[in-house]
């Protein structure tokens, strides 16, 4: 992406392919996407550290020679089942553009309930998560102090 927020030339013909089943190989991926145009490059991502080292990460990037080929592949392959899992296919720059637009329009108020489970578009910012945790702790402390007061009054009676 450039500073104006538009997708650069490389991202216009580069696809993100996600929700890949771990049984799908690089060769299978190339075979699935080659009917839609000339593939210039393919980046199949692998875990490089930890207990899953050497296993696929579940997503890849495919770059076509033209933007039109990439758009055609996106239209034909998005949602298509591969090993009983629907593929998530979009232009590589789209995800960032959608997340940026979503986070810039999101207003976080003090009473607003936040979902702390991350993932995908609409992910909450770090400061919003911290604010949500602080609010939750405050409400738990208030509930705890009410419970203690109730126990004390019960014991006095």
From TrEMBL:
Domain RRM: from-to ranges: 13-94
Keywords on record: RNA-binding
PROSITE patterns: RRM (PS50102)
Magnesium in keyword set: no
InterPro entries for the chain: Nucleotide-bd_a/b_plait_sf (IPR012677), RBD_domain_sf (IPR035979), RBM18_RRM (IPR039157), RRM_dom (IPR000504)
MF-aspect GO terms: RNA binding
Top-level taxon: Eukaryota
Gene3D superfamilies noted in UniProt: 3.30.70.330
SMART domains: RRM (SM00360)
Keyword Kinase: no
Protein name: Probable RNA-binding protein 18
């Amino acid at each position: 992406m450039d500073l104006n927020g538009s997708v650069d030339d490389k991202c216009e013909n580069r696809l993100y392919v996600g929700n890949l089943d771990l049984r799908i190989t690089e060769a299978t991926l190339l075979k699935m996407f080659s009917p839609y145009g000339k593939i210039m490059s393919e980046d199949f991502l692998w875990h490089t550290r930890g207990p899953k080292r050497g296993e696929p990460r579940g997503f890849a990037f495919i770059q076509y020679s033209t933007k039109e080929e990439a758009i055609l592949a996106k239209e034909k392959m998005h949602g298509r089942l591969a090993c009983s899992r629907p593929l998530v296919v979009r232009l590589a720059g789209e995800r960032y553009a959608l997340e940026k637009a979503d986070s810039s329009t999101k207003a976080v108020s003090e009473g607003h309930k936040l979902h702390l489970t991350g993932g995908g578009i609409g992910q909450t910012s770090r400061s919003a998560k911290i604010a949500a945790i602080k609010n939750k702790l405050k409400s738990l402390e208030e509930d705890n102090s009410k419970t203690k007061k109730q126990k004390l009054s019960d014991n006095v009676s």
